[in-house]
Amino acid sequence: MKTVLCLHGYTQNGSLFARKASAIRKALAKAGYESYFLSGPISVSPSDLDFAVEEGASDMLSWWPTNEHDPKYYKLGDAFQTIKDAVETAGPFEGVLGFSQGAGLAAVVTRHLPELVPSHPPLKFAVLYSGFKLKPEEYAHFYDPKLSTPSLHVIGTLDTIVSEERSMALYDACENPQILKHPGGHYVPSQKPVVEAVMAFIKSTESPLSPSDEDSASDWDQFDKIGGN
């Protein structure tokens, strides 16, 4: 079975993200893909946050430290090691799917994975929900030249956490990206048309395109015109 690496958002963890992304997880399974929900290596405590968290929230994790006083602030070494270990445990991966901070990392992984694991084949796709470019100048090389892995950028028009401007900066850093907008906020949308469009994009990266997928590709073309407005 083909496996998709799934990277959660800030303060989430793998199991929570699996629940939050249940609609796309079930659609992937129906299409013959296993979803591997990885947990980030950095613990987050409520004192690290400038916003309230859900009561009873636990196991809050991150892909890199976000506290500017941490000596490892915004360093990716632990995240890369976690992904490298995941490749050895559950790889190879067909593609990558990420949300928010996880989407920012997922985009970088499309370029850096061959360096982390030279034997790993190139990823065939990246689905990036509410993604953004990593901001330190030391990471500018990840986007130059543009990221070449086929990518779908799913953006909520009401997202107040990651602005459309930030998500579009990542979109502009990719070669021939696709965009899909939904009338929602900062979450992985579960509406059937959105899930179907995401799956049509993923199926379009399969080679060769089988006759059974032609209708899906056509559906994607239709929805792309709607979502891109």
From TrEMBL:
InterPro entries: AB_hydrolase_fold, FSH-like_dom, LovG
GO cellular component: cytoplasm; nucleus
Sequence ranges assigned to domain Serine hydrolase in this UniProt record: 2-197
Keyword Transferase: no
Region (Disordered): 206-229
GO MF entries: hydrolase activity
Assigned keywords, A-Z: Hydrolase
Gene3D superfamilies, per the entry: alpha/beta hydrolase
Keyword Repressor: no
PANTHER family: ESTERASE OVCA2
Name of the protein in its database record: Dihydrofolate reductase
Species of origin: Wickerhamiella sorbophila
Lineage, highest ranks first: Eukaryota, Fungi, Dikarya, Ascomycota, Saccharomycotina
